[in-house]
Design a protein that fits this description.
Layout lengths: L1 H12 L3 H4 L3 H18 L6 H15 L3 H17 L4 H10 L2 H16 L6 H13 L4 H12 L4
Helix pairs in contact: 1-5, 3-4, 3-5, 3-6, 3-7, 4-7, 7-8, 7-9
Length: 153
């Protein structure tokens, strides 16, 4: 998995893979964005507001803007397209994220799913699956959803 991510980074950045992967933050960010792309693509409809929410998350949470965001999204789309399953990304996240970072990632996934003010069953299913693979408790899974969507009426 790491070798494949190194290849993707090296092909897009033109840098030596050792230099690129000296920074684990880039790997964490790529894995996170790839999962966000998975939510955007889940319902087979890419809504502009979902991509816009992804860009907002990148800017606010990771300070990645403009051309850097475009590059990161392109690399994440490529990685997501080449991955055979979620484990490709969740293993790296489990290795490098603490519990709070995982919860924040799940909340970001809910924000993207809710960007069109409708959560499709497939989006909820994927977020639930990812929460399980990331060892995020059901309590935190529900709490993050409620923070994004609000309390049911």
């Amino acid at each position: 998995m790491i070798a494949k991510l190194k290849e993707i980074f090296a092909s897009t950045l033109g840098d030596s893979t050792d230099q690129v992967f000296a920074n684990t933050e880039q790997t964490k960010l790529l894995a996170s964005v790839a999962l966000m792309i998975e939510i955007i693509a889940a319902d087979n409809e890419q809504h502009d507001n979902e991509k816009s929410m992804l860009r907002q998350i990148l800017a606010k949470q990771f300070d990645v803007k403009d051309e850097a965001a475009n590059d990161l999204i392109a690399r994440a789309e490529k990685a997501q397209g080449e991955a055979t399953d979620f484990f490709y990304f969740t293993a790296d996240i489990n290795e490098n994220f603490n519990e709070q970072e995982k919860i924040e990632l799940i909340e970001s996934l809910w924000k993207i799913a809710w960007a069109d003010h409708e959560i499709q069953d497939i989006e909820q299913h994927i977020i639930r699956k990812l929460a399980s693979l990331l060892y995020v408790s059901h309590k935190d899974f529900i709490a993050t959803k409620l923070r994004v969507v609000g309390e049911p009426s």
